[in-house]
Amino acid sequence: MILKVLNTALILFAVFMGLKQGWAMIGNKPEMVTMFGKWHFSPTAITINGIVTVLSALLILFPRTFLLGNFLMAATILMIICFHLADRELKGAAIELPFFLLNLVIIYLQHPLVKTN
Fold it and tell me: Could you say which of 2, 54, 81, 103 is the most buried, measured as most Cβ atoms within 10 Å of its Cβ?
């Protein structure tokens, strides 16, 4: 029971962060444009990345699409980590790493509303 409560809290945190960051990308916030701009992302590409991030956050909430949502979010975070590492920005990659690992932990713990035998 405690594990399900903890997992629910982790899921809600991941969804909140996904929605927050995705909305910032959709709105082309200056910090997002600066970060993605150095990797030559156009404003349209940033918006599309934001839509994928918001969609993945929403998919995490439902048991049937839980795995797909987590994989999508982990993939977008991994893409950002790879771009940071390609630029030799270890600090940026280190900031993203806990969020990537959070998705992997959530996948391991599974959706709290799914009944297991």
Answer: 103
